[in-house]
Amino acid sequence: MSVIKSQENGVLTLRVEGALNNVTSPMLEEALSAAIDEAKQIRVDFADTKYVSSAGLRVVLMGLKKAKKNEVSIKFANVSSSVLEVLDATGFSDFMDIE
Description:
The chain is an alpha/beta fold. It has one domain: 2-Layer Sandwich (Transcription Regulator spoIIAA). 40% of the residues lie in helices and 34% in strands. A four-stranded mixed beta sheet has the order 1-2-3-4. Helix 1 links the parallel strand 2 and strand 3. Helix 1 packs parallel to helix 2. It is globular. The mean pLDDT is 96.
């Protein structure tokens, strides 16, 4: 898995490529935490994310909590149907801002 960072028009984008699981989730955790410290608007692009495990969901939840505390907006974009299925089944889609 890789996390590719870019910035455009004041929005910091993190593009997550590959599977987000217990081995790879620390990479997203580190990138998301740093992004929250440096930007007020974040977009997490899941177009190339093939799988999200419970460890990945934990990272998303922790990131959302830190963002709320720091008054940072996080939007999730290009969520594949397989990942959206996991988010729906776990209730995460109820409180995530999904484009």
